[in-house]
Design brief:
By secondary structure, the chain is mainly beta. 6% of the residues lie in helices and 55% in strands. The chain has one domain.
């Protein structure tokens, strides 16, 4: 089991927020805030046996002032679970 807490800021006040494909998700033109938000994450991994493991993750993202200034600035929850077979 592990846990982490990540913090996100804009590097420049003239920049926006970008997605994985480098597409602009939120423009920074309407906000002078740098702080995007933070994310608390809990991870769990269990080696059931040599070839099978079970993993689970839960995270909660706390929206910061930049997201609230530029649109829907709500907190978000995310959870996932997966089973891995290795041969």
């Amino acid at each position: 089991m592990s846990a982490e807490w990540d913090f996100f800021w804009r590097e420049s006040l003239d920049d926006g927020l970008y997605g994985v494909a480098l597409n602009l998700v939120r423009s920074g033109q309407n906000s002078r805030e740098r702080y995007i938000g933070s994310e608390a994450i809990a991870n769990f991994e269990w080696a059931i046996q040599r070839h099978i493991s079970l993993s689970a993750a839960y995270s909660h993202f706390f929206a910061g002032p930049f997201l609230k200034d530029t649109g829907n600035g709500k907190d978000v929850d995310y959870g996932s679970m997966w089973l891995t077979f290795r041969f």
